[in-house]
Write a structure and sequence with these properties.
With about 250 residues, the chain is α+β, with helices and mostly antiparallel strands. Helices cover about 25% and strands about 25% of the residues. Helix 1 links the parallel strand 4 and strand 5. Helix 1 runs parallel beside helix 4 and helix 2 runs parallel beside helix 3. The radius of gyration is 18 Å and the shape is globular.
């Protein structure tokens, strides 16, 4: 990547009555500073998704290399796994830390996985569009097929500023994958596409294992993101639209 292109980064802190989420994102990989400290993430807050490990600790969804820093903790292990796969194969560096209903954020009442997962994808969508900045000089369209054993998924992405999501994600009614209700995957992707202001189609074409179907979908999404976000040398400042605006 030419040195004239700065890294595209964003830091988002989203707080509601139900969740507190921090997201640090670099669309171009590279090192990321640790997330800012906060009382809401202190070790005094207990299970099920706390105590939250120190950001320097290695865990199931952390990976640090010369080209990428990834550290994700939402309290929902399978969701962490999907976000990790997404970031890894998109070439992003990503840090996410969440306290939500699962961590009994208010009144010592634990709810379920809905607010934690939904709000995480809203915050990540916000970080994506912030990091992307002016939607100029981009490939704009991205697509990818990704297999995982018997499962095969396709993702097609348009950085269009026209939020829309269509997904064919054939999970059994009422199914869960680990702590995550499978129905939340469709809802989360819709939330991300809306906040990221993109048009997104994700289809699980075939598969029998729910874990494999979900993971192949996120890996396909990662590949589509990597392609669509690619900057094109010589087209700096150009809008990839006949309308002249995105």
């Amino acid at each position: 990547m030419p040195s004239i292109w700065p890294r595209r980064t964003a830091l988002v802190d989203r707080t509601t009555k139900e969740t507190r989420i921090q997201v640090s994102l670099s669309l171009d990989g590279g090192p990321l500073d640790l997330l800012p400290s906060g009382e809401e993430f202190s070790q005094e807050h207990v299970k099920p998704n706390a105590p939250i490990p120190e950001q320097t600790a290695t865990h199931h969804a952390s990976q640090v290399t010369d080209s990428q820093h990834i550290w994700i903790w939402t309290g929902i292990g399978f969701l962490d796994h999907m976000l990790h796969a997404w970031a890894k194969h998109a070439g992003w560096s990503l840090r996410i830390r969440c306290r939500g209903d699962l961590a009994k954020l208010t009144h010592d009442v634990s709810v379920d996985d809905h607010h934690t997962s939904e709000d995480t994808f809203i915050a990540l969508g916000h970080a994506f569009t912030t990091a992307l900045g002016p939607r100029t000089g981009l490939q704009r369209f991205g697509h990818c097929y990704a297999p995982l054993d018997e499962s095969l998924s396709r993702a097609v992405l348009d950085i269009s500023s026209r939020p829309f999501f269509v997904g064919t994600l054939p999970f059994p009614i009422g199914a869960s994958i680990g702590q995550l209700k499978a129905e939340m995957i469709h809802h989360c992707l819709n939330s991300w596409a809306t906040e990221a202001r993109v048009t997104l189609h994700v289809d699980v074409i075939r598969g029998t294992n729910d874990h494999h179907k979900a993971e192949s979908a996120f890996k396909a999404l990662a590949g589509a993101c990597a392609m669509a976000c690619r900057r094109i040398e010589g087209r700096e400042g150009e809008v990839g639209s006949t309308k002249g605006v995105l």
